[in-house]
Amino acid sequence: MTATATAPRHLLSGLVKVRELGIILALVLLVGYTAASNPRFLSGQSIRDILLNTAILAVMAAGQAVVVITRNIDLSVGSVLGLSAFTVATMMSDNPGLPMVVAILVGLAVGGAAGVLNGVLVRYGRVPALVVTLGTLYMFRGVTYSWAGGQQVNADELPRHFLTFANDAVLGIPWLVLIALVVVGGVALLMRNYRVGRELYAMGSSPQAAELAGIKVARNLLGAFILSGALAGLAGVLFAARFGTVDAAAGTGLELNVVAAVVVGGVAVFGGSGTVWGAGLGALLLTVIGSSLTVLDINQFWQQAIVGALIILAICADRLVAVRIARSLRKKDSHV
Amino acid sequence: MTATPGPSRPGPAKLEVRDVTKSFGAVAAVQGVSFPLYAGEAHALVGENGAGKSTIVKMLAGVHRPDTGTLAVDGAEVEFAGPADAKAAGIAVIYQEPTLFPDLSVAENIAMGNQPLTRLRQIDRKAMHANAARLFTRLGVHIDPDRPARGLSIADQQLVEIAKALSSEARVLIMDEPTAALSGVEVDRLFAVTRALRDEGAAIMFISHRFEEITALCQRVTIMRDGRHVCTEPVADLSVDDMIRRMVGRDLSALFPKQDTEIGETVLEVEGLGREGVFRDVSFTVRAGEIVALAGLVGAGRSEVMQAVFGVDRYDTGSVRFLGKPLKAGSPRAAMAAGMALVPEDRRQQGLVMDLSIERNVTLPRSRALARLGLLFGAAERREATSWTSQLQTKLGRLSDPVGTLSGGNQQKVVLAKWLATDPKLLIVDEPTRGIDVGTKAEVHRLMSSLAARGLAVVMVSSELPEVLGMADRIIVLREGHVAARLTRAEATEENVMYAAMGQQVTT
Amino acid sequence: GGTTKDSADNSGAAAQTGASADPNAKLKEGLKIAFLPKQLNNPYTDVEVGGGKVAAGELKGEYKLVGPNDASASSQVSYINTLIQQQQDVIGIAANDPNAVCPSLNQARQAGIKIVAFDSDASKDCRDVFINQATTQGIGESLVKMASELAGGSGEIAILSATPNATNQNAWIEVMKTELAKPENAKLKLVKTAYGNDDDQKSFQEAQGLLQSYPNLKVIVSPTTVGIAAASRYVSSSNYKGKVAITGLGLPNQMREYVKDGTVKKFALWNPADIGYLAAYAGAALASGQISGQQGEKFKAGKLGEYTVGAAGEIVLGPPTEFTAENIDQFNF
Amino acid sequence: MSDLARGGKQKDNAVLEVRRRLATWDSIIVLLTVFVLVVASFSVTNFGTSRNFTFMILDLLPIVLVALPMTFIIVTGEIDLSVASTLGLASSIMGYLWNQGLSIESIIPICVVVGAVLGAINGFLVTGLGLPSLAVTIGTLALYRGLAFVVLGDGAVADFPFTYTGWVTGTIGDGPVPNVLVLILVLAAIFGVILHATPFGRSLFAIGANAQAAHFSGIRVARTKFWLYVVSGAVAGLVGVLWTLRYSSARADNGAGLELAVVAAVLLGGVSIFGGKGSLPGVLAGVVLLAALQNALRLQDVSGQALNIVTGALLVLSVLLPNIATSIRTTWQRRKLRRAATV
Ligand SMILES: Nc1ncnc2c1ncn2[C@@H]1O[C@H](COP(=O)(O)OP(=O)(O)OP(=O)(O)O)[C@@H](O)[C@H]1O
Ligand SMILES: Nc1ncnc2c1ncn2[C@@H]1O[C@H](COP(=O)(O)OP(=O)(O)OP(=O)(O)O)[C@@H](O)[C@H]1O
Ligand SMILES: [Mg+2]
Ligand SMILES: [Mg+2]
């Protein structure tokens, strides 16, 4: 029994690793090709730019991945980012003396509150997440617009320490990147090795069974939405620090990028499978695609089309791997 | 199998149902039922389909809250706000329908909720895996703990459910038809494990429509009829006929009224059918008026063969001829048009659309024929549905209710109605009486038998040996995806079939 | 033979503004003047319509501001329809698409509403006058002149524009290309035109891309306020600072920081508030019958003085101002 | 049960049935829509005029047409987010071909066919390769929009013949009925009958609620979904043509963002995002309700920002309110039972 059980175990875990390996492979190919035609693509400044650009998307993708794994979706993240970015930027321009930590906490709080609203409506209102968050996508954006009007917070109104935060580095790694790494790593660990993480997978895999298994579905679901909201809020702070100019439209349409990153990263939209690391890699891949198309000097008009085609390719590749795993399972089971 | 004599129990009940009532809208599912479960005793709950057994289970599990009445654990009244509370009170439940997480590994499924933890409060995967492997050894089954639950056969799912319930080391174990998908070998294993648990002092509640299982395992039985409590008595005091009479409210005639029929010409010819990794070189024919049974152990590939014949699955080699003409592969629509019908084994996933109304489900394969000038009106569907559900004595509220609100057995009747309504020339039934009560089972058998007498060809896949022996004209035994034996009605005995299914020498 | 481009009669039902102008007519009071900019919540736009509001006040009219949150023509059409229903007297519009808004504007004109296009023109036959911030030629020339000065007369330059469809941007870029083709600019090489879609983040990333792709780039010219601000911000925080010059059209308030820290030496703009101001006065003059949009007609525009309607109903505001570290503190918009 | 008793019970059932039907979300939304239209006509100046009616119909034209096939797709449990990009690409191609000198009579069918082909690509990716539709159509959303820019670049083509542009914005005999209303009504009727009164329509609900059971019932699940995507693409292509003619402007960015408005309207109309539930009258009411509210609020000078909030809130409330009503009813029933038991 044990002897037969361990061999497929290696095989399986090997295959599972392949899932993320596919994305890594795609990344390597893309970076390799781009760097071959323009070596400056691998210069320090360029890599720094790519990582900085990825950071915000990756932070949001980590939260989104958790929500998607529970068979839900959070389309409101772009609007939450806008709300949080504007709140924090206004606060910092009014009180230039506030330390960065306060900005981050306020961003997390704003996002978390938005997440609570989403979670409560989904769980206690029994409204499908897509409907709720499509609704709050409009509502949060509307709130930001009504509040901001035509106002814009410009870089010169923001305190210096807030703006330099985006570019300052510890041990050569910019704060932004560090935060993204910690967030993605932390959430990934939580989802993989802790009970609550596995419960979230279970909830996405079979919602009814999760109820019957006595999983605290309400608490977990609320938690997932709060996490996604809070991370979108955090992303808002990072956005404000990085771009320096914030108006009511900040982050408009970003939800589709975030969902795309998660999906490209191999998280199944029907819940229950995929990893947070994958989502982070998905965010990186999307950013690199964008950057390398610019660097390769691809016609502006072709860029969007190529991004779309690459997204579809990535999903196809992921599907291919999944089918392979299923087939190997079937073979292993067969008595024939 | 031998029955353990039922001791008369003193002392407080481990778990007690006190005068509970539960209604769903207009349906009164349970009305004023009380009975105790004692430690060290297995308690059977029997009743017709829709009698309210599963509803009681769900109240004990904290899924439903009783409208009135209470539950008591160790004599103290409790109120369960959800399944977590019941679990915390030491109650483990195997539900009638498997409730696994398809994306998680089997080991995780079993451990969910009480995974072993390392010092950092992380999940200890090694211990989790070992635990699952140990449980499977105890149950004598071979399932890889690291494979995902997706793709497990119904039987394997049921076994994982059992392992899950065992793993929680509960003081009360409630099993809602755990054996419906299992064949004799696995049932015996399950009973051995259950008896051990019982003797260690657990209280067991067991639901089944098979009386031999009840007499083999249980000491006490509670009988329900139409949501009401009929009686609770030691099993030893009641004969099977007594139980049936109290359950149904009248006497039942012979259980397997197989009529002799005139065998007509060949309807179905399956030639060298094979599918990689699942079955190979399966050949057989079925003639009009004949009932052919496919027997075998769970996972022998019976369902897969018939699904390939009907076209819901593909096959790689071989051919299927129907009424003398080759049948298009991989097209259920072509099979239906030619006059085939398949009652699948998994009614929840394959047989019914749970959210659609009963009438829509019954007429789903027939909607084209019911349409006038391409348009379909509710009246035609309703007429058809009314006629078939009443013919099969389906217990239902309104035809427009979602089929998911019916009890398991009544859902099965709806699946049968749906396919009988297509007036097929060949009826394939996969576990036709799984989860069906005795009365209805007799009804279904009578129906199949009389349909065969009228010239219908029937292929029956069944894991229930008495059913196979009682109904079939010929028996084809599959083992590990290929034909192990072909037996006529005269040759077939319980031993014959079992030996062939398990790969031992057939002694004739 | 169906209807093809060549055979088509697409005259439409262009509104007839037969009324002849009376230069001495009195300016009406209580006129309902509505502004429909490309997009709300855009700082540049806000300054523009702010000027319109001041003028409406001076004219004792009713000022109204409506507009979409996205810079799309279709949403503008819905707003035009609403304004028709509300029976405004004057609509000042910065068209997101010169043609898409046309049928609706003509319906408005049929309903007696005067149409003043500003900032970004609508098609000639569906508006009465167009307030041009500066001549297209003038802007194009001055952009090339600034770029040439900053590049020291030779080297690679790139353009960071708004959306690929922006009418005014494309017109300026055309002029720039003609200018660059002249012998005195032969050593300047336009390597690329990138589009930031007037989206801050996208412009930011496009600027990054330009610098990565063209290591020898000397100047980025961004004739849009969003683009120039984003490009300046990126360069000021990267190690390209000091190596690459940024210029174009920008708002002094947004650019002050980068002019002060040396990222930007010089950029230009007209006073956007004056555009709105002039548009309101032109609208009032139209609604009062002082002018009808014919070439040569004259009217008074409050503090800005007298203006003359040019060819094709164009009214030119005046030459743009160049901003440098020396003079930027004198401006607040 | 005797036949007599059954007859009596069935009559009861019929009454209950009617009451149940009336209480469903799609009938509520129809009533709500009528209510909003009536109230707005009386209380909002200029709302009830025939010209405003025309404006409103023109505003909801693209949403309502795209919503018809979208309803089918969502009922089968899938989604198509690429519709707006398909619209944009069709518009670009229309402009390109017009510039090439093709006649408009041949361009229009070409655009519809192009839409159908784009839909077929979605359909193939979803049904042929078994990819999740949400992911696929996010990809093609970017792809098709990108191609639209490739085809037409930054240009806009505007000189379409007035016979056609005028028809789209015009009314029948210069009366109050817009030409396009006829088109909307005909298409809506066709889609409505197909969904609610044909075997095909039945199969869509079955597919959405349980695709495997539908497959076992002889329904060609993959093929059905594939054709739905083709139809969705074709309709989006047609709407691309109408959009271009309405604004007399073929541009690559036409219709950007329309997909969310369409999905919002469909969901507001009571269609379940999980598939298997929904009705076409509900969807039509949803579209009209959104358009009427936006129109009325704009006339009242409510800002676009507030419109966002109203749209979002409406969407959430449309599902939330019926749920709250149900749970109040069940709690109340339970209480009654409890009380009866204790007495
Ligand atoms: N969720 C529900 N909604 C409405 N009615 C329900 C629901 N669950 C059960 N019922 C009804 O309650 C009655 C009892 O059902 P239950 O499932 O308890 O029967 P059962 O005894 O387990 O039958 P079986 O032997 O067929 O499993 C049936 O009439 C059934 O239709
Ligand atoms: N979807 C699936 N994915 C992987 N393996 C499967 C799948 N379906 C069936 N199998 C495997 O194929 C084999 C044959 O299963 P099948 O259901 O045909 O057996 P059966 O004889 O009908 O038994 P049962 O009583 O379980 O229906 C089993 O080993 C089963 O585990
Ligand atoms: Mg049951
Ligand atoms: Mg089977």
UniProtKB/TrEMBL annotation, chain A:
GO molecular function: transmembrane transporter activity
Subcellular location: Cell membrane
TM region(s), chain numbering: 21-38, 50-68, 98-122, 129-149, 169-191, 221-243, 249-269, 276-295, 301-322
Keyword annotations: Cell inner membrane, Cell membrane, Membrane, Transmembrane, Transmembrane helix, Transport
InterPro entries the record matches: ABC_transp_permease
Statement: the UniProt record of this protein carries the keyword Transmembrane: yes
GO cellular component, one term: plasma membrane
Subunit structure: The complex is composed of two ATP-binding proteins (LsrA), two transmembrane proteins (LsrC and LsrD) and a solute-binding protein (LsrB).
Name used for this protein in its record: Autoinducer 2 import system permease protein LsrC
Organism in which the protein naturally occurs: Actinoplanes nipponensis
Lineage: Bacteria, Bacillati, Actinomycetota, Actinomycetes, Micromonosporales
Gene: rhaP
Automatic annotation (TrEMBL), chain B:
Classification via PROSITE patterns: ABC_TRANSPORTER_1, ABC_TRANSPORTER_2
Primary location recorded for the protein, binned into one broad class: membrane
Keyword Phosphoprotein assigned: no
Keywords associated with the record: ATP-binding, Cell membrane, Membrane, Nucleotide-binding, Repeat, Sugar transport, Translocase, Transport
GO cellular component: plasma membrane
ABC transporter domain location: 15-505
InterPro entries: AAA+_ATPase (IPR003593), ABC_carbohydrate_import_ATPase (IPR050107), ABC_transporter-like_ATP-bd (IPR003439), ABC_transporter-like_CS (IPR017871), P-loop_NTPase (IPR027417)
Coiled-coil segments: none
PANTHER family: CARBOHYDRATE TRANSPORT ATP-BINDING PROTEIN MG119-RELATED, D-ALLOSE IMPORT ATP-BINDING PROTEIN ALSA-RELATED
Protein name per Swiss-Prot or TrEMBL: Ribose import ATP-binding protein RbsA
Organism: Actinoplanes nipponensis
Lineage, opening ranks: Bacteria, Bacillati, Actinomycetota, Actinomycetes, Micromonosporales
Encoding gene (name): rbsA_2
Automatic annotation (TrEMBL), chain D:
A Pfam short name: BPD_transp_2
Keywords: Cell inner membrane, Cell membrane, Membrane, Transmembrane, Transmembrane helix, Transport
Acyltransferase keyword on record: no
Residue intervals passing through the bilayer: 28-47, 53-74, 107-131, 143-164, 176-195, 226-245, 257-275, 282-300, 306-328
A GO term from the CC aspect: plasma membrane
Membrane topology classification: Multi-pass membrane protein
Localization annotation: Cell membrane
Molecular functions per Gene Ontology: transmembrane transporter activity
First-listed, main subcellular location of the protein, grouped into a coarse class: membrane
InterPro entries: ABC_transp_permease
Domain of life of the organism encoding this protein: Bacteria
Transmembrane helix is among the record's keywords: yes
Record protein name field: Autoinducer 2 import system permease protein LsrD
